[in-house]
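Hi all, long-time lurker, first post. I run a small reading group and we've been trying to get comfortable going from sequence to structure in the token notation. Rather than ask abstract questions, I figured I'd post a concrete chain and ask someone more experienced to write out its structure so we can walk through it together at our next meeting. Sequence below, copied exactly:
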Amino acid sequence: MLILQALKNRFIRVLWIGQLTSAVGDELFKITFIWMAVNTIGPNTGYITAAQLAAIVLVTFIGGRQIDRLHPIRVLLSMDLIRAILVLLPVIAFYKLKSYFWIALTSSVLISGLTGVFDPVFLSLLPTVAGSKRALQGATGLMSTTTRSARVFAPILIGLLSGVIPVVHFFTLDVSSFLISAVTIFLVTRSLTFIPHAEKETRASAWKLLAREPEFRRALILKGLTGGLWYLAYILGFAFLVKEEFGNRLGIYGTLMTAYGAGNLISALIFGSIERKHLELQVYLGFLVLAIGFILIGSVHWYPLLMVSSLFCALGGPLNDIPFFDLALHRFSQKEIPAMFRARTFFETACALLATLLAPYLFRVFHAKTIIFWSGILIAVGAGIGIFLTLESKRKRIEASI
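-- Answer (accepted) --
Happy to help. Here is the structure in token form:
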């Protein structure tokens, strides 16, 4: 199994532990803050998510080339430490002010922008740490389990601790997770040589790179559109679904998120452990599974079936994410990878920003189940287009070679 082989690499293992811890902290922050926002400002929560996404768009569009001039290790350590300070601010405000929601809102927007810096740089380190293409597939699969594991463990922690500690201290746990991430990155990178990937003469425009790789460009566009619908259906839709169907019950929301996280983790462990060959088709297959899941969630009413549908839906996440990462890591050089992942982040976040700007209107007019259902239908259409175009491209290549 590729994931087990990746765990044998000491450097990959240490990085994975740090990112897993950080992912759990992030998920605690996200779930707690979204729930707080839904109960404080209702449908206008969509504007908050839009502000977070706008921060990512601005950072990736404006700051990308400037970030490339910096040493990647310094960037990663700085981002972790700054994010830890930002998460700590609402905790301090909790004890000093009557309301800390608006402080938490400001922190969440700034953290989103900094995460848009951190993720592409971190992924660009994997080829150096892994060493070979086969090991890189294992490392990619392993790292994909961090966010998925967090979607299981964070809601469980919220369920266990919500009646024991003040809600704000879920933010405190996130502070600790950023510090652990910084320590693990420091321990690994001091033992390996990482060459800055942003020498002026080697920087390439993301748009020129995309023009060179039409299959990756197609996958990028469809992934961005799918990502926007995913934000609408999952990030906002699940919270409003629980509020509409079951009332103001954080425990049920946490359980539904746990089911989604469990499906994500199962999928990541399975698909991250096997060799992947038909990468583009696997991306679109993942979209299709995700779509069917959302359609089921928007159709069922019995709570146990809702849980099963949520778990099934989540299988599609790693099934499209992991081969997409493989596609990028195989098609582009290490110096080109940050630009490619920023292009993916920019386009996917821009689509999600549009969806969340529409969210306040949509959630006032339509039930959450309706929005989730039609998000699934649109994702299925995108998956069908992707599969058709990929097969058509292969057919033309075969005909040209005859």
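A couple of things your group might point at:
The longest helix spans residues 368-401.
The domain at 2-401 is CATH 1.20.1250.20 (Growth Hormone; Chain: A;).
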